[in-house]
Amino acid sequence: MITLFAFLHHLAAFGLVAALSTELVLLNGEMGAATIRRLARADRMVGILAVVALLVGLARVFHFGKGAAYYFRSAPFIAKLSLFFLIAMLSIYPTIQFVSWARAQARGQTPSIEAGMLRRLRMLVHVELTGIMLILLCAAMMARGVGSFS
User: Fold this and answer.
1) Which of 93, 94, 104, 135 has its CA 20 to 30 A from that of 86?
2) How far is residue 43's CA from residue 38's CA, in Å, rounded to a whole number?
């Protein structure tokens, strides 16, 4: 069971990277109706995979790992969890934009998408991906026992 949860946690995390990378690629292209639908779908996957990664990760902490006391005495774990929530907060803005564009499309309207908006969204997705790289660094540090305190 421990191995299964580790696998699911990694699968969700790498799926999250793939979904965010998909958003980044789509934000660099033409913002037609098909692209907006794909962005909304990719963003839904970001949300689903983030929730799965969080829930499976918490299950590992509380039920399948070394115990919550061990993890919550680890600076890299606390940093990892903090980064995860920071990334989640940053992802709200792009989600709001993608949903508003999809709703406008559903009403038969063409959403107005300014170049400045696309730059901001690309920057946010870049920051989210960078945050995930830092989470991976924290995970490697945790695995090596770096930064544990009593």
Assistant:
1) 104
2) 8
For residue 76, how many other CB atoms are within 10 A of its CB? 21
pLDDT tens sequence across 23-62:
999 999 899 999 999 999 999 999 999 999 999 999 999 9
Q: Rounded to an integer, what is the distance from CA 124 to the centroid of its chain?
A: 11
Rg (C-alpha) for the chain, rounded Å, is: 18
* Distances from the Cα of 94 to the Cα of 27, 69, 88, 135, 141, angstroms: 11, 35, 11, 21, 30
Cβ partners under 8 Å of residue 42, min gap 6: 19, 22, 23, 26
Is the CB of residue 60 less than 8 Å from the CB of residue 80?
A: no
Domains of the chain with CATH codes:
2-143 (1.20.120)
State if pTM tops 0.90: yes
The dihedrals phi and psi of 83, each to the nearest 5 degrees, come to -60, -40
Q: Closest by alpha carbon to 88, among 41, 141, 51, 134?
A: 51
What local confidence, expressed as pLDDT, does residue 148 receive? Answer: 82
